[in-house]
Write a structure and sequence with these properties.
The protein is an alpha/beta fold. It contains 9 helices and 9 strands. Strands 1, 2, 3, 4, 5, 6, 7, 8 and 9 form a 9-stranded mixed beta sheet that branches. Helix 8 runs antiparallel to helix 9. It starts with 20 loop residues before the first strand and ends in a 6-residue tail after the last helix.
């Protein structure tokens, strides 16, 4: 299994003047990436909840064996899963979460432990996430983005209607250099299919929120330039990075194409499922949704 080869046998404990930090991860069939993710969480958190979306590959047993508390629920979207995971935590001061394909890079553990002892007070601390790509047998850093991951308990409020990109409202934040590694992709075709599903879900949410429709045609080149040049992916990955950027940027074009289709009256079954809060059914429908265009 990936990771350091050893599982932590002790947990970080709240010290004098420190904070209680609880962590969680949402996982499905992720036995290949979950151990490394849990290693990091268990190294810095006072408790860890592993929310299992009905996995069948032994991931639940891995989480329990490593010392996480396993909670199971059928998949109904990211917002619902994060809300359930936070509810399962035991009254922490701050909440820390990783996705199941993320892990703490070595310097992050010390940085977070030092942060715990520093009497933090901001509602949110943003950590750098390194998106690592494996394309055509070559591994490279695709981009780095700062993500809100250390959040005061009272501010860690997710809702079930946050079916994708379940970002919390903007709050005062500081940056903490505790880098998160992310297994961003190992397959361009898998990444493309994932971006397509996300685009449908975003469009359903955007339609209900009456979001402004933007030209779809400009989105893809704009985001390719952003990731390749502004984020530097082209210099690190060359042609492979360009191919990946084209796939990733397809999401930004597709989401506005889908939004246009929804406004034209297409895909009413998706809107109805969302509006009636039938989120599990919505995810099933999205898997079978036809391409936009």
């Amino acid at each position: 299994m990936p990771g350091s080869g050893r599982w932590p046998c002790t947990r970080s404990r709240k010290g004098s003047g420190g904070v209680k930090l609880s962590g969680f991860v949402i996982h499905g069939n992720n036995q290949d990436t979950l151990p490394r993710c849990l290693e990091g969480l268990l190294s810095v958190c006072d408790e860890v909840v592993a929310l299992d979306s009905m996995s069948t590959d032994g991931s639940t047993e891995i989480a329990r064996r490593m010392g996480a508390r396993s909670v199971s629920m059928p998949w109904a979207g990211y917002g619902a899963a994060r809300a359930a995971a936070v509810t399962a935590l035991n009254n922490p001061d701050y909440v820390f979460f990783l996705d199941s394909d993320e892990y703490l890079e070595p310097e992050a553990i010390k940085a977070i432990l030092d942060w715990k002892a520093s009497k933090p007070h901001m509602p949110v601390y943003r950590l750098p996430r390194h998106d690592w790509a494996e394309v055509d047998g070559h591994r490279f850093l695709y981009r780095t983005e700062w993500r809100a991951r250390l959040i005061q308990r009272d501010a860690a409020v997710w809702r079930p209607d946050m079916i994708v990109h379940e970002a919390l409202p903007r709050m005062r934040s500081e940056r903490l250099h505790a880098p998160i590694g992310h297994r961003f992709t190992t397959s361009l075709s898998w990444r493309a299919a994932k971006e397509e599903r996300y685009a449908v879900l975003w469009a359903v949410m955007a339609f209900s929120a009456e979001r402004k429709l933007k030209p779809a045609w400009i989105q893809r080149p704009a985001h390719v330039l952003r990731d390749c040049l502004l984020h530097g992916a082209l210099w690190r990955g060359g042609l492979r990075a360009l191919k990946l950027a084209w796939v990733v940027a397809g999401y930004h074009a597709a989401k506005y194409r889908y939004l246009r289709e929804l406004r034209e009256g297409r895909h009413p079954e998706l809107l109805q499922a969302f509006q009636e809060q039938r989120y599990r059914e919505l995810f099933q429908k999205v898997r079978n949704a036809p391409p936009a265009g």
